[in-house]
Design brief:
The chain has seven helices and eleven strands. The protein is of the alpha+beta class. It has a seven-stranded mixed β-barrel. The protein has a two-stranded antiparallel sheet with strand order 3-4. It has a two-stranded antiparallel sheet with strand order 5-6.
Length: 285
């Protein structure tokens, strides 16, 4: 399993050398955009609409849009300086709370923690202490240049880091439109709904749930592949842009015209008797 970073977790005077690993992966079936005419993947180029040309990576800078079409430009050096101040890979557990006190809306992404060299005993200590107290640790850490609030908990004998949103990252429910006001529901309807919920209540088993859309899509792709309904990418022909092509046409046409109108000058350059020409000039003069 790929190690994202190595650092330490501390609570009190206990320091645990750990490694961070992504606990989840995106299994979405990625579909490319092809040109219908020739079945070639479409390129997404970085074009400057003002300069009307493709922009190279080294020409790109970062900017914050504080108002429409108004930006504050930040240099790589300025961003690096901020990141270096905050990228110490030491995670300090700030508080301990109960897991049920954190609403699921705050949870973002999961990471596994494994002990690094010499950290097995302290790792086991924290894992057992969290399990027996039924608590989780709240901590801060830097992941991919972003300071994350996180919950450290036990999952199947492994410590897990759950990044959680800051309060100002969760939108207010009062901004959600068309939420009905509290109203009295007939007791018979409510009892029927509760009875239905009771009948459908089971012990949660994640293995029961499958991504049916992904399964059917992959089956369709495999079926079309087996039936030979496939396409291969063609090598793009190295054509000059229209403006360059037009310029070449114009230059070639001009050259042909020049050759047709001045044939004698071309013969004079290649003629061998050089001394006779000045005499003719004198007679003509």
């Amino acid at each position: 399993m790929h190690t994202m970073w190595k650092g330490t977790i501390s609570f009190g005077l206990v320091n645990i050398p750990v490694k961070l690993h992504a606990a989840t992966e995106n299994k979405d079936v990625r579909l490319r955009h092809l040109h219908n005419e020739c079945q070639t993947p479409i390129k997404h180029e970085k074009i400057c609409p003002v300069c009307n040309r493709e922009v190279k990576n080294e020409e790109i800078v970062k900017g914050y849009e504080y108002a429409t079409n108004k930006f504050v430009v930040l240099t790589d050096e300025e961003l690096k300086e901020i990141q270096e101040v905050n990228t110490e890979k030491s995670v300090e557990i700030i508080d301990f709370v109960k897991l049920e006190e954190i609403d699921p809306i705050y949870f973002e992404k999961s990471y596994y923690l494994s002990p690094n060299d010499g950290g097995s005993k302290a790792y086991t200590l924290l894992r057992q202490a969290l399990s027996e107290t039924d608590k989780i640790g709240v901590a801060k850490l830097m992941i991919r240049s972003k300071e994350q609030l996180a919950a450290i908990r036990v999952y199947q004998n492994t410590l897990v880091v759950e990044t959680i949103h800051y309060p100002d990252e969760v939108r207010k429910v009062t901004d959600v439109p068309n939420i009905p006001e509290e109203s009295s529901i007939p007791k018979k309807e409510l009892d029927t709904a509760k009875m239905l919920i009771d009948q459908l209540t089971i012990t949660f088993d994640p293995e029961k749930y499958k991504d049916n859309y992904r399964t059917v899509l992959l089956e369709l792709i495999e079926e079309k592949k087996n039936q030979g309904e496939i396409t291969s990418v063609k090598e793009p022909s190295k054509q000059l842009p229209d403006n360059v092509t037009n310029l070449m046409d114009a230059l070639e046409a001009s050259l042909d015209r020049a050759k047709g109108t001045k044939p004698k000058q071309k013969k004079r350059k290649t003629s061998t008797p050089k001394q006779s020409q000045p005499k003719r000039t004198k007679k003509n003069a």
